[in-house]
Amino acid sequence: MTSTAPKLQIDIVSDVMCPWCVIGYRQLAAALEATGTPHEIRWHPFELNPNMPPEGQNIREHVAEKYGSTKEQSEASGVHMTQAGAEVGFEFRYADDKRMHNTFNTHQLLHWAEKQGRMHDLKMAFFTAHFTRGRNLSDNTVLADVAAEIGLDRAEALAVLADQRFATEVREAEQHWINQGIQGVPAVVFNRRHLVSGAQGVENFTSVLNQLAAMPEEAAPAP
Fold first, then answer.
1. Contact at 8 Å (CB) between 115 and 139?
2. DSSP assignment of the chain, as one string?
3. 14: which strand partners?
4. Contact of 26 with 88, CB cutoff 8 Å
5. How confident is the model at residue 4 (pLDDT cuts 50, 70, 90)?
6. What's the distance, CA 175 to chain centroid?
7. pLDDT band at residue 73, thresholds of 50, 70 and 90?
8. Are 125 and 132 in contact (CB under 8 A)?
9. Comparing 71-75, 124-128, 162-166, 199-203, which segment has the lowest mean pLDDT?
10. Which residues have a Cβ under 8 Å from the Cβ of 87 and sit 6 or more positions away?
11. Which residues contact 98 (CB under 8 A, 6 or more apart)?
């Protein structure tokens, strides 16, 4: 694929509590690099647990309640995700006291960061904060700290969360993707037309990219 090719638009619907979202992104990123695909990634909000209370929930308790998993199954899943993350250069650290959190405020802060061209950077920082560092993303001060660590204004981040100024926009964006039939994440949409669900692996994402590159140019939607 040449540098003069039009950029592939990639919309990724995800939640920072979703381990397969960061794994899937890393797999996709590797495939994009391998194929030299010009692209533009746009992140969109989805809440895995919109009714999660502010204090969050122990991850093993949460998985047992939501999926009926035993402790052994949960531990095996953690090992599998850790291995999958390592294959794409992302470190998962699971512990017995790890918690799931409500992410509505993280999505609001991501919306704010997008206005400064930093949504992608903040998204990556949140993944690391939660999965690698075990930080409490239910705590607004922690969210503001993470924003500040990538160079965003900490005081403004706190103000955004205090007045909930982007709550309506985030709710509308979440509903939009639900209306499009998205029920789980990661959901990756290429050129607003081709949906790929889940962490498909570098090889499969590479195959998808090659298939898209082989399509006639008129098959892509207008920008």
1. no
2. --TTSPPEEEEEEE-TT-HHHHHHHHHHHHHHHHHT--EEEEEEE--S-TT--TT-EEHHHHHHHHH---HHHHHHHHHHHHHHHHHTT------TT-EE---HHHHHHHHHHHTTT-HHHHHHHHHIIIIIT---TT-HHHHHHHHHHTT--HHHHHHHHHHTTTHHHHHHHHHHHHHTT--SS-EEEETTTEEEES---HHHHHHHHHHHHHS-GGGSPP-
3. 45
4. yes
5. low
6. 17
7. confident
8. no
9. 71-75
10. none
11. 58, 59, 134
Buried b / exposed e over 67-86, threshold 16 CB at 10 Å, is eebeeeebeeebeebbebbe
The C-alpha angle 119, 123, 127, rounded to 5 degrees, equals 175
Burial of 128 (0-12, 13-18, 19+ CB in 10 A): middle
Q: Which two tokens stand for residue 152?
A: 């965003």
Phi (first) and psi of residue 57, to 5 degrees? -150, 145
Q: What is the pLDDT of residue 1?
A: 42
Read off the tokens for 12.
Answer: 């990724």
d(CA 82, CA 19): 9
Backbone angle region of 158, left / alpha / beta, with phi > 0 → left and psi within -120 to 50 → alpha: alpha
Residue with tokens 């090889």: 203
CA distances from 137 to 27, 69, 104 (A): 24, 24, 10
Amino acid at 31: A
